[in-house]
Amino acid sequence: MNCQGPRVLAVAAATALLAVVAGCSSGSGGAGASTGTGTSAKKTVTIGVLTDSTGPAASGNKTSVEGVKAGVVYAARQGYTVKYVVADTATNPATALSAAQKLVTRDHVFAVIAHSAVAFAATNYLTAHKVPVVGSGQDGPEWITAKNMFSVTGALNSTKVTTTAGTFFKAQGVTNVGAVGYSISPTSAETAKAGAESARAAGLKVGYLNAKFPFGSTDVGPVALAMKKAGVDGLVLQIDPNTSFSLITALRNEGVKLKVALLPTGYGGDLLQAGPGALNAAQNLYFGLEYEPVEMQTPATKQFVADLRAGGVTGAPTYAMYNGYAAVGLLVQGLKAAGADPGKASLIKALSNIHDFTALGLFGSHKLDINDRQNIVGSVDNCLWVTKLEGKTFTLVKGADPVCGTVIPGKTVSASS
């Protein structure tokens, strides 16, 4: 997780309803089959969607399937019929591996879309079987090292530091930052530290840093007291909203006046559908997004919403929906470049040559080199679009639509230090 852009452990509020999302029926694992009539035959491809439909990360990740549904609509316009099989990780590493094995050996999928906090448990298997993987690089460094894996937000180097977070906090009048990350996830710990270092580089004080907080815990009393004592007025929270909301509530109860609390997950439907408790806890909080928010009403966001509706999806879009939609967009871009009858190897080769990904226009004027595995830190051009929740409305934040930054030379962090 990173206030500079990436989400490396996208888990959301436990108050949200958990649901098992059913997938489409499986079909041929190749991309060579064709259907349709007349002269406009459509190539058919079957993919697996590896996601957290249940478990602690479900409320943040399960809606990626809804984004895939919208992507299917987009793919059809491009001449491709995309069928998909949903594989639930249950937010459990062992289950993630068995789910991936089923996708390959029983469902014979041609490619996998991965949007899971525990995808790392399955990636060695998928790499060994040379399966193309696209999705959200939220869970670990395999998105940097595995040459069959391509993240829609880039192969994020969470040990590096950019100016993005510090620039945003300074512009909002924050003077003293507190940062929290999870001990279970090296990338969560690293991006919490990176956010703190970005604040320091902007001339702000870092009054509290805890990169070893227990995963999913809501025992936040000691942290709130320590932050109050330190005089913190801004938060870099690389943790799930369930923990974040508990901490923010505890700080408010202690009389702490926060100028900014920036969360990496929770935007849109994740909160609006989570019930009054979560909605009340999230008032006046800031939410980062690596894409244009739908509130911007750009041609790309309008098309995204239209494709969601055409795919049968109602309600406000979520971050996971963006990722699922963008993943299908990246897959289609790869299929187009892979030739008339691509195999898995030719698709990986085609994806390896993409240096101008736009997320179907949702990056605005920016283009992402998905194969730059050295310099990407905070998504496309280290940019972050920020919204603020006011009532039931996410409002655009002036000067943060987006706020972009640069890598700070020689500045790195480590989860173990």
Structure description:
The protein has 417 residues and is an alpha/beta fold. The protein folds into two domains: 179 residues, 3-Layer(aba) Sandwich (Rossmann fold), CATH 3.40.50.2300; 167 residues, Rossmann fold, CATH 3.40.50.2300. The protein has 14 helices and 16 strands. Strands 8, 9, 10, 11, 12, 13, 14 and 15 form an eight-stranded mixed beta sheet that branches. Strands 1, 2, 3, 4, 5 and 6 form a six-stranded mixed beta sheet that branches. α2 crosses α12 and α6 crosses α7. It is globular and about 65 Å long.
Q: Would you summarize the structure shown here?
A:
With 417 residues, the protein is α/β, with parallel strands linked by helices.
How would you summarize the topology of this molecule?
Layout: E1 34-35, E2 42-51, H1 58-61, H2 64-77, E3 80-88, H3 93-105, E4 111-115, H4 120-128, E5 133-135, H5 142-145, E6 149-151, E7 160-162, H6 164-171, E8 176-182, H7 186-201, E9 205-213, H8 221-230, E10 234-238, H9 241-253, E11 260-263, H10 269-272, H11 276-281, E12 286-289, H12 299-310, H13 319-337, H14 344-351, E13 383-390, E14 393-396, E15 403-404, E16 407-412
Parallel strand pairs: 2-3, 2-4, 4-5, 5-6, 8-9, 8-10, 10-11, 11-12
Antiparallel strand pairs: 1-2, 7-16, 12-13, 13-14, 13-15
Helix pairs in contact: 2-12, 2-13, 3-4, 6-7, 8-9, 13-14
